[in-house]
Design brief:
With 232 residues, the chain is an alpha+beta fold. The protein folds into 2 domains: 14-57, Leucyl/phenylalanyl-tRNA-protein transferase, N-terminal domain (Alpha-Beta Plaits); 62-231, Aminopeptidase, CATH 3.40.630.70. The chain contains 7 helices and 10 strands. The strands form 2 sheets. The protein has a 7-stranded mixed β-sheet, sandwiched between helices. A 3-stranded antiparallel β-sheet has the order 1-3-2. The chain is globular.
Length: 232
């Protein structure tokens, strides 16, 4: 029997989203709104400016990365085992998010506005948003960040300043989530880049069913990575 998610306190049913996935416009980027959104298959994605009302989305189909489905090339595996990068978590959340917004190699862009950075930094301080960082010689050169609620991790964006740095961070994140007992890694939408990494599309109905199961899991992200690059 499918597990049912209780109705949202602030959003309409996701089935009311339009063909592009747009569900609602307006609202707040306060922690209560953000947590309610992610727990109901909804996420914020601004139209491109903090001066405009916030837009909330629930697309169908939905992009996910199976926790055993990340494509690791032989070259990337060699890079991981060489220990070229020092990998950590939650040591530079705000810097990672800012780099995803402005740095080279970003997946994202103007949608990571100052308002979004402030909102997700608040979530990070509350323990619901996390970053994985890759450093070389002490310098931040890659990373990924996202939202963690029980057995769900919603990956938001990643960046690199050196080749393979973001892929190393992502590989360590995926392995950490698998070792920690997470069930669902949400990518929101599949792009040509994430498809090469192993991302797939599932229906919104299947996503919500898997989300409900993930939210039943009594797991947390933790304070340190359970898997390091040299473990691959």
């Amino acid at each position: 029997m499918a597990i049912l998610i209780p109705p949202s306190r602030v959003f309409p049913p996701v089935e009311q989203a339009d063909e592009d996935g747009l569900l609602a416009i307006g609202g707040e980027l306060e922690p209560a709104w953000l947590l309610d959104a992610y727990m109901h298959g909804v996420f914020p994605w601004p139209f491109g400016s903090d001066s405009q009302p916030m837009a909330w989305w629930s697309p169908d189909p939905r992009g996910v990365l199976e926790l055993d489905g990340l494509h690791i090339s032989r070259r990337l595996r060699r890079t991981l085992r060489q220990g070229r990068f020092e990998v950590s978590c939650d040591r530079a959340f705000r810097e990672v998010m800012a780099a995803c917004a402005t740095g080279p190699g970003r997946l994202g862009g103007t949608w990571i506005t100052p308002r979004m950075i402030e909102a997700y930094t608040r979530l990070h301080r509350l323990g619901f948003a996390h970053s994985v960082e890759a450093r070389r010689d002490g310098r931040l050169v890659g990373g990924v960040y996202g939202v963690s609620i029980r057995g769900l991790f919603a990956a938001e964006s990643k960046f690199y300043r050196e080749r393979d740095a973001s892929k190393v961070a992502l590989a360590c994140l995926v392995a950490h989530l698998r070792a920690s007992g997470f069930l669902l890694l949400d990518l929101q939408m599949v792009t040509s880049h994430t498809k090469r990494l192993g991302a797939i599309e599932i229906s919104r109905e299947e996503y919500l069913d898997r989300l409900a199961g993930a939210l039943e899991q009594d797991v947390t992200f933790g304070e340190r990575l359970l898997v390091q690059a040299e473990d691959f």
